[in-house]
Design a protein that fits this description.
This protein is an all-alpha fold and about 325 residues long. It contains 15 helices and no strands. The protein has helices spanning about 5-15, 15-20, 25-30, 35-70, 80-85, 90-110, 110-140, 145-150, 160-175, 180-185, 195-225, 230, 235-250, 255-285, 290-315. Helix 1 crosses helix 11 and helix 7 runs antiparallel to helix 14. The protein is globular. About 35% of the residues are buried.
Length: about 325
């Protein structure tokens, strides 16, 4: 409901880039020189600068797991201390973080048509096909229908203001609102593109992928956990600690693990690309830097900011229950 109402209006309003042909800072400045307009532009610039570094840390975890599954070592990830041992080491997380960030930077450096557009056209169809395939397989598991019912049936007794706020937060993150991405991509749109039609496509695609993500995870974890709500609501450890255990308990475990990690890597990379492209476009627009100079600066900045949470995990390692 929020996507169809609040989200629709916000996406339309967050595409002034098409009219101004500028990045968020420049686009907001076109509408006025007051503090509120300048603040609106810069807050859209600062948010992706904060997100890219920590997002790349998690992206490094994703690409690490993909590499492990690709080399046939998936069974090791099901061990209780595998993930905590990985994030608590010194050099491994840093190396995978740099690899993920480097892959993002290379694609952004290639530009919109040669980099982002080509990679997205290749990755998005594969992402959808993999999501549908894994969802169908997970629904064939014994007891998965109970998990599906848990996923789709409304639990009105649990409904509260907190539910609405959580949905609102997910709306902003999932649809890339208030972080400059829509403004940046809007500046690349042709003038003859139907804006309302594009927004509807974004809403439909985002909602379908989000629903498929739940189908891939919730029924399978429900079966594995016996419906334990604590496990079903366990946050990041659901993906990096619990899901490997779930996959290991299934038939075709290695194939399923590989496909899921491949899908996760694609999803993480496309999101990281859009965030970094927003920051690069701002530096190009505001300071008239070249794409190469902007990309190098953003990459170095992300390395500096992203190294902090990695260092924190090494100095203060978390247990699986704390993740």
């Amino acid at each position: 409901l929020l996507i169809l109402t609040f989200g629709y209006v916000l996406i339309v309003l967050r595409l002034p880039g098409r009219m101004t042909r500028k990045s968020p800072v420049g686009a907001f400045a076109k509408f006025g020189k007051s503090f509120s307009f300048r603040f609106g532009g810069w807050i859209n610039a600062v948010i992706p600068m904060i997100i890219v570094p920590y997002y790349s840390v998690i992206g490094g975890w994703v690409i690490k797991y993909f590499a492990v599954f690709l080399t046939g070592g998936g069974s090791a990830t099901a061990a209780d201390d595998y993930f905590t041992g990985f994030v608590g080491s010194v050099f491994q997380p840093l190396g995978w973080f740099l690899l993920f960030l480097g892959a993002t930077a290379v694609i952004v450096l290639l530009g919109v048509e040669k980099g982002i557009e080509k990679v997205s056209k290749f990755m998005m169809p594969i992402l959808v096909v993999l999501a549908i395939g894994i969802s169908i397989y997970c629904l064939t598991l014994d007891g998965a229908m109970d998990g599906l019912a848990y996923y789709v049936q409304p639990h009105m007794s649990d409904f509260s203001v907190k539910t609405v706020l959580a949905a609102m937060g997910q709306l902003f993150y999932s649809m890339s609102l208030a972080m400059g991405i829509m403004v940046t991509y809007g500046s690349y749109m042709r003038k003859d593109t139907n804006l309302e039609s594009s927004v509807r496509q974004i809403e439909i695609f985002d909602t379908v992928i989000a629903f498929l993500a739940g189908l891939m995870i919730i029924p399978a974890v429900f079966v594995f956990s016996g419906g334990d709500p604590k496990i079903l609501q366990s946050g990041p450890s659901l993906m990096f600690v619990i899901l490997p255990k779930v996959f290991e308990s299934m038939s075709f475990a290695e194939l399923l693990e590989l496909h899921f990690s491949f899908l996760s890597f694609f999803a993480a990379l496309t999101s990281s690309i859009s965030l970094m492209e927003t920051i690069v476009s701002i530096f190009q627009d505001k300071f008239h830097w070249t794409r190469k100079s902007s990309c190098i600066f953003v990459t170095v900045m992300s390395i500096v900011l992203g190294a902090r949470p990695l260092l924190d995990l090494v100095l203060s390692p978390l247990s699986a229950g704390q993740i």
